[in-house]
Amino acid sequence: MASDDAVYETRTFPGIRWFPALGIRGGGTNWSGTAAEVQEYYDRFAASRESRWLLTTPRNWFVVEKKIPWEKFFVDQTIAPSSHEQARDPNWSNYRWNQVDILASMLTAPAIVEDKAKLSIFVAMTATSEQEPVPQWMINKGLTWRESSGHVHVRQDREEGWRWMADFPVAVLRRYG
After folding, report:
1. Over the stretch 106-142, which tens digit does the pLDDT of each residue have?
2. Span 92-101, pLDDT tens digits
3. Closest of 70, 64, 66 to residue 41, by C-alpha
4. N or C: which end of the chain has fewer CB within 10 A?
């Protein structure tokens, strides 16, 4: 998803690239995150406005965001990685993308292939608007806490809680970055 037109912020977060963008988060249970759905959002919200909103100087992109709970990335969410190294390995057999890769599918949308749009992945790793996004193995290890509303949070006050949580984005970046 890199581009030569990315804007580089050199002061606050050296080396991090970001894209000036307008976009939409496909929400709800009705959006499964297919390439056709990504393209449909682009066609509906951006295609007719592309010369006015997107092809400007500096360049802007249309962004489609897919929010996915952390637990959904596992084939069997009761199976924990055997080590932090395994958790950071994108080829670990318990990562769902090694069986069905919806992220790779979304990247085949014509608007993304033609560099008119970007895909943003929002992984819900601890309770926000998702009640229980944490994989069951984290709960089984005692690395979570449940608030009175039932929302499950990772115990970030425990080193093992935040370390397991930090390993997953490494695997995502190694797979798609």
Report:
1. 899 999 999 888 888 888 888 777 788 899 999 999 9
2. 999 999 998 8
3. 64
4. C
The contacts of residue 15 (CB under 8 Å, 6+ apart) are 8
Whether 85 is covered by a domain: the verdict is yes
Range of the domain at 25: 7-176
pTM of the complete model: 0.80
Can you name the residues that pair with 152 across neighbouring β-strands? 146
Chain centroid offset of residue 78 CA: 21
Tokens 């318990």 appear where?
Answer: 94
Say if strands 17-18 and 7-8 run parallel, antiparallel, or are unpaired.
Answer: antiparallel
Residue 51 Cα distances to 48, 54, 55, 61, 112, angstroms:
8, 6, 5, 11, 16
The number of folded domains in the chain is 1
